[in-house]
Amino acid sequence: MPSDRQKKIRNFCIIAHIDHGKSTLADRLIEKTGTLTQREMEEQVLDTMELEKERGITIKAQAVRLIHNDGENEYILNLIDTPGHVDFNYEVSRSLAACEGAILVVDATQGIQAQTLANCYLALEHNLEIVPVINKIDLPSARPDEIKKEIEDVIGLDCSDAPLISAKVGIGIDEVLKAIVEKIPCPTGDEEAPLRALIFDSFYDPYKGVVCYIRVKEGTIKKGTKIKLMASGKEYEVTEVGIFRPSLMEVEQLQAGDVGYVTASIKNVRDARVGDTITEALRPASEPLPGYRPAIPMVYSGIYPADSSDYNDLKDALEKLQLNDAALTFEPETSVALGFGFRCGFLGLLHMEIIQERLEREYNLNIVTTAPSVIYKIIKTNGEVIELTNPTNMPPVTEISYMEEPIVNASIICPSEYVGAVMELCQEKRGIFKNMEYLEATRVMLHYEIPLNEIIYDFFDALKSRTKGYASLDYELAGYKKSELVKLDILLNGDPVDALSQIVPKEKAYQKGRAIAEKLKEIIPRQLFEIPIQAAIGSKVIARETVKALRKDVLAKCYGGDITRKKKLLEKQKEGKKRMKQIGTVEVPQEAFMAVLKVE
Amino acid sequence: MKGLYVHIPFCKSKCFYCDFNSIVNDMLQDEYIDVLLKEIDSLSEENFDTIFIGGGTPTILSIKNLQKLLNKLSRFNPIEYTIEANPGTLNKEKLILLKNYGINRLSLGLQSANDKMLKKLGRIHKYEDFLKNYFDARDVGFTNINVDIMFNLPNQTKEEFMFNLYELIKINPEHISCYSLIIEEGTKFYEMHVKNELMLLDEEEERLIYHEINNVLKQNGYIQYEISNYAKKGYECKHNIIYWTDEEYIGVGAGAHSYYEGKRFNNISNVYEYINKIKLYNSAVEECINLTEAEHMSEFIFLGLRMNRGININQFKSKFNKDIMEIYSKEINELINNGLIEKVGENIRLTEKGRDLSNLVFVSFIK
């Protein structure tokens, strides 16, 4: 039975497909409940990282406590914002575990999308009460009635009194608040029982140490409590507990049903992993909360300093990023072409791009990133199994019995007129058709089995462009499958460049080799001498292009006495030169290493 | 050596390739000249070895204004006294005036000897106008004439250009400036280029023409002394050599640049703002940079290397008290190995290949 205190609490999150208005709705709820004054409101308050605001996406989970007075009672509404991208699915799942209910935001012009469904199923798995909300009804193309029917048909949720809102213009926000209070169950859990609190996010603060975002399921936690993290087994003493308004605000204690934060002089986010359970050291719970598993990197790539003297700075930066990002892994590696650097593991391509951008922007590093690779399994003739994350380390063909590559189950939703285009794309990407179902008369959901390495490159962009942006995609790892794979090497000026090697399906090797050689010809600037570019499998050259020698680089006119202008031009040219990586005698622009995978 | 540059920022119309500081506005002429005279008055120098009146189009000035300006400059007694003149703004009366005021070098903007091409470049004159000016200038007594000409023009074949060059050689000017067209941002040509409306040669063909120009001019007694400049012996432009050899110069007028006592500074380019600033403060300096020793060295090198004779190792040493081979040994050796520069006696200079890729060479000496 919930206590009287618990009856006034609602813990919920908002789930939505990207761009359906999740963050905007969160902003309106914060505004409406007076959590922040109008002056303090900034668009998308919860997305605090510069990158998140820029890209309009949520990377890290965030939480905020809202106080809502419905005229009779005052309620505490804990809103937990969740990441919207499939790369961060694991974090979504943890956020959901901290709630009793979820608001499902569906765009009135677009209807259900792949991530709507994926997140919805996740929420149902966690037994959350789902409150559907139809957003963007102010748009002329909104079709709320059809969308409601779609939600009822596809997901089976009653939409008869789903609020019709526009988060952008502020229509229907009161109804959303009312639905939260009325429909989402209050938390339960014995406040006197041994402590069990779920860590659903954490970040590193240089002054407080790791700040854990927690949902207390049972018991009470306060300053001075001796705690134990059940997965890591480590013990700490609580230095502070508090709530999110949305900045950190210390309170005396957090009890069963509460959402808040705890600090305990924890030095590294790895020691307080998302999904771990906090209990009391002196009176531990017998069982942790279900579902802890570490986030596993799916994509690997090499990150190198453009200037080799920056190696230690890069190492420091990666260590600092890791303090906040338990999913990021890295270990030192050496490349003949690029020197000393790190092989880094990421949740997906977006995660990788974000780390890359943060290294460049926040740490002001000039880096070279090599083409991402998935983890291949190599079964050698002697029975040994190798997990290959760097194509360079592929053993000689004679030692390989066979290879396996990771496969995902992908679901794609699109208007029925694009089914042909989507199928064609999936086929090109070596997809195996599973089945297809109609969500409504004009919209279809397709299920495919596709190799992960086909997805991580440009699949999503291709899908969007071939369906005029209408298709949506979700996928989950489905294991490994035997596959015919070869290592494609690139030679510049006759020398193989290890950082440009890739594992590719044999059937695509020729086409890919040609495309890469052509692409590199575009990217590598003309230099003093002619540069042959070759693509090869083993010792067999399968494609060849040539960058012609530079014949002219001269400013004819010297602008009278304006030397400064001329010097600025030369300085700009020098800057460009600095951004090149010297490989043997060839200067290669940094983008070449990424561009090799963006070829078709 | 010390030079004075005087900028006249007016033109009858803007040529399609030009991004120099010039405007089309006749109304401002009188006021500008008054202000310019004021700036010249403020100069403390007793004398200059060279004076160069450039533009824009200096010869667009009315007889009255030209007279005022030349009168003001007559307190100096330069060895070389140049004015830029454009066909379409020049006549015998003006030429006599220029000659009488001691101007001893005329720089004529021809650009092309083909009337259709002149039109396509946005020039206001025909070839015939140029010829008239040229022979009038000879009549009046000018014995040192430069002609500006351009190659690598849109839709221009090698043969067409060479025909231009031979025509020019026939009339035997003392100096030829021969520029390869550069498409500059902010020009009409740039807009057209972005829209892919200009037919331009590729690098190889362009360099073939350049090499042929060098050969043909050499055969006809013109010595190349800078990337784009050729002269009969003894007729090299002293004023321009000042820019390339780390000598001092003062620029007056809108947007003019100066190099003096280790500083580079320039007047504001905007003609209206220039006028206001001089009126109010007697100075229109917009920016002043104090060169560090490292910057000074790299400028000394990359400017000096523009000249065919290159830079002198001893001169570097006496200027900076350091050995160039110590500071830039890696760069110099690499450039020599790549055949871009060569050491001849005490000089380091561009090779023929180095002249084609001079920016590549210069960049090595930046920072």
TrEMBL record, chain A:
<dbReference type="InterPro" id="IPR000640">
    <property type="entry name" value="EFG_V-like"/>
</dbReference>
<dbReference type="Pfam" id="PF00679">
    <property type="entry name" value="EFG_C"/>
</dbReference>
<keyword id="KW-0648">Protein biosynthesis</keyword>
<keyword id="KW-0472">Membrane</keyword>
<dbReference type="InterPro" id="IPR013842">
    <property type="entry name" value="LepA_CTD"/>
</dbReference>
<keyword id="KW-0251">Elongation factor</keyword>
<dbReference type="Pfam" id="PF00009">
    <property type="entry name" value="GTP_EFTU"/>
</dbReference>
<keyword id="KW-0378">Hydrolase</keyword>
<dbReference type="GO" id="GO:0043022">
    <property type="term" value="F:ribosome binding"/>
</dbReference>
<dbReference type="GO" id="GO:0005525">
    <property type="term" value="F:GTP binding"/>
</dbReference>
<dbReference type="InterPro" id="IPR027417">
    <property type="entry name" value="P-loop_NTPase"/>
</dbReference>
<keyword id="KW-0342">GTP-binding</keyword>
<comment type="similarity">
    <text>Belongs to the TRAFAC class translation factor GTPase superfamily. Classic translation factor GTPase family. LepA subfamily.</text>
</comment>
<dbReference type="GO" id="GO:0045727">
    <property type="term" value="P:positive regulation of translation"/>
</dbReference>
<comment type="similarity">
    <text>Belongs to the GTP-binding elongation factor family. LepA subfamily.</text>
</comment>
<dbReference type="InterPro" id="IPR005225">
    <property type="entry name" value="Small_GTP-bd"/>
</dbReference>
<protein>
    <recommendedName>
        <fullName>Elongation factor 4</fullName>
        <ecNumber>3.6.5.n1</ecNumber>
    </recommendedName>
</protein>
<dbReference type="GO" id="GO:0005886">
    <property type="term" value="C:plasma membrane"/>
</dbReference>
<feature type="binding site">
    <location>
        <begin position="135"/>
        <end position="138"/>
    </location>
    <ligand>
        <name>GTP</name>
    </ligand>
</feature>
<comment type="function">
    <text>Required for accurate and efficient protein synthesis under certain stress conditions. May act as a fidelity factor of the translation reaction, by catalyzing a one-codon backward translocation of tRNAs on improperly translocated ribosomes. Back-translocation proceeds from a post-translocation (POST) complex to a pre-translocation (PRE) complex, thus giving elongation factor G a second chance to translocate the tRNAs correctly. Binds to ribosomes in a GTP-dependent manner.</text>
</comment>
<dbReference type="Pfam" id="PF03144">
    <property type="entry name" value="GTP_EFTU_D2"/>
</dbReference>
<dbReference type="InterPro" id="IPR006297">
    <property type="entry name" value="EF-4"/>
</dbReference>
UniProtKB/TrEMBL annotation, chain B:
<comment type="function">
    <text>Probably acts as a heme chaperone, transferring heme to an unknown acceptor. Binds one molecule of heme per monomer, possibly covalently. Binds 1 [4Fe-4S] cluster. The cluster is coordinated with 3 cysteines and an exchangeable S-adenosyl-L-methionine.</text>
</comment>
<dbReference type="InterPro" id="IPR006638">
    <property type="entry name" value="Elp3/MiaA/NifB-like_rSAM"/>
</dbReference>
<keyword id="KW-0143">Chaperone</keyword>
<dbReference type="GO" id="GO:0046872">
    <property type="term" value="F:metal ion binding"/>
</dbReference>
<comment type="similarity">
    <text>Belongs to the anaerobic coproporphyrinogen-III oxidase family. HemW subfamily.</text>
</comment>
<keyword id="KW-0949">S-adenosyl-L-methionine</keyword>
<keyword id="KW-0408">Iron</keyword>
<keyword id="KW-0349">Heme</keyword>
<dbReference type="InterPro" id="IPR034505">
    <property type="entry name" value="Coproporphyrinogen-III_oxidase"/>
</dbReference>
<keyword id="KW-0963">Cytoplasm</keyword>
<dbReference type="GO" id="GO:0004109">
    <property type="term" value="F:coproporphyrinogen oxidase activity"/>
</dbReference>
<dbReference type="InterPro" id="IPR058240">
    <property type="entry name" value="rSAM_sf"/>
</dbReference>
<dbReference type="Pfam" id="PF04055">
    <property type="entry name" value="Radical_SAM"/>
</dbReference>
<dbReference type="Pfam" id="PF06969">
    <property type="entry name" value="HemN_C"/>
</dbReference>
<dbReference type="InterPro" id="IPR007197">
    <property type="entry name" value="rSAM"/>
</dbReference>
<dbReference type="GO" id="GO:0005737">
    <property type="term" value="C:cytoplasm"/>
</dbReference>
<keyword id="KW-0004">4Fe-4S</keyword>
<dbReference type="InterPro" id="IPR013785">
    <property type="entry name" value="Aldolase_TIM"/>
</dbReference>
<keyword id="KW-0411">Iron-sulfur</keyword>
<protein>
    <recommendedName>
        <fullName>Heme chaperone HemW</fullName>
    </recommendedName>
</protein>
<dbReference type="InterPro" id="IPR010723">
    <property type="entry name" value="HemN_C"/>
</dbReference>
<feature type="domain" description="Radical SAM core">
    <location>
        <begin position="1"/>
        <end position="218"/>
    </location>
</feature>
